[in-house]
């Protein structure tokens, strides 16, 4: 799969209240389980109750749920809605 994001992309992320659904295929920002003060952007691979499996679009170079396991649904901070920079890459990722 071709990575949806590259270094330098700037994103609009809509905060997700706990009641909003998270679905496989969604691109989300989540708290990094290894460093809770940091956000990571990953694709939702699966949702199992309150647990979410996150996957990077570039499996060979991505640290995701294969490394740190599924994350709690509350760790998902928001859904990526739009890429606003750089100008030649604007739009939905």
Topology:
Layout: E1 10-15, E2 27-32, E3 35-48, E4 51-55, H1 65-68, E5 71-72, E6 76-85
Antiparallel strand pairs: 1-6, 2-3, 2-6, 3-4, 4-5
Tell me the CATH topology. Umud Fragment, subunit A
Order of helices and strands: EEEEHEE
Alpha-carbon distance between the termini?
A: 13 Å
User: What's the main sheet like?
Assistant: 6 strands, antiparallel
Q: Which of globular, elongated, flat, extended, rod-shaped describes the shape?
A: globular
Q: Mean of the pLDDT scores?
A: 91
Please tell me how large the radius of gyration is: 13 Å
Q: Which structural class fits the helix and strand makeup? A: mainly beta
Low-confidence parts lasting 5 or more residues at pLDDT below 50? none
CATH class: Mainly Beta
Number of helices: 1
Please, what is the CATH homologous superfamily? Umud Fragment, subunit A
Number of strands: 6
Oligomeric state of the chains present here: single chain
CATH architectural arrangement:
Ribbon
Report on this structure:
This protein has one domain: Umud Fragment, subunit A. The model has no long low-confidence stretch (mean pLDDT 91). It is built from one helix and six strands. The chain is 4% helix and 46% strand. It has a six-stranded antiparallel sheet with strand order 1-6-2-3-4-5. With 93 residues, it is mainly β. It has one helix at residues 65-68, and strands at residues 10-15, 27-32, 35-48, 51-55, 71-72, 76-85. It is globular and about 40 Å long.
């Amino acid at each position: 799969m071709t990575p949806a994001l590259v270094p330098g992309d700037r994103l609009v992320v809509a905060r997700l209240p706990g009641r909003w659904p998270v679905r496989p295929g969604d691109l989300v920002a989540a708290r990094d389980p290894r460093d809770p003060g940091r956000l990571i952007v990953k694709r939702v691979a699966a949702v199992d109750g309150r647990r979410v499996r996150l996957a990077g679009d570039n499996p060979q170079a991505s640290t995701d749920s294969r490394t740190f396991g599924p994350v709690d649904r509350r760790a998902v901070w928001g859904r990526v809605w739009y890429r606003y920079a750089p100008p030649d890459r604007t739009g939905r990722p």
